[in-house]
Design goal:
168 residues; alpha+beta
Length: 168
Amino acid sequence: TSIPSPCLRFCHWSSISFKMKYLIVAAIALFAVAVALPRSKRAAYELPDGVEFIVGSVKTSFTCPAKNGYFADVDNNCQIFHVCNVVPKEDGSTEVQQYSFFCGNQTVFNQFSLTCAFPEDAVPCRSSPDFFYLNDKIGQEKVFFHDDSDVARAIPLIPRYQQAAYKA
């Protein structure tokens, strides 16, 4: 006597209807196509659900300058910031990629430190464009991110330092 194969007992492919076989093959093919498709890029202002509870109505007016860096979104009270990335193309042109993020509740993007901070520890939002130039220092070797003139420019604007100056 021969011992029946376990597959013969459980894998009754021949008993599966033609329609069912067709559906299985079609599902596998669709899955393969979905996996093979290129992923879509994250769009500017593609923020998590619920952002409006923290930021309010989001204004989508910011566009990246043609340079790399981190940029406060003044139109959104600096509660949103953008990472801009300039990518050269094969034809010599460039593509500017923009990725948008929002700071945690009760914080704003501090353009001086390129971090989210409490408003009293940050340069005022309206002054953020005055510090966009700091992005040019990112990645430079043997260059301090803040030099004395950068600090001298920022300190009078930061509320916590203004309060400390009045107490002294």
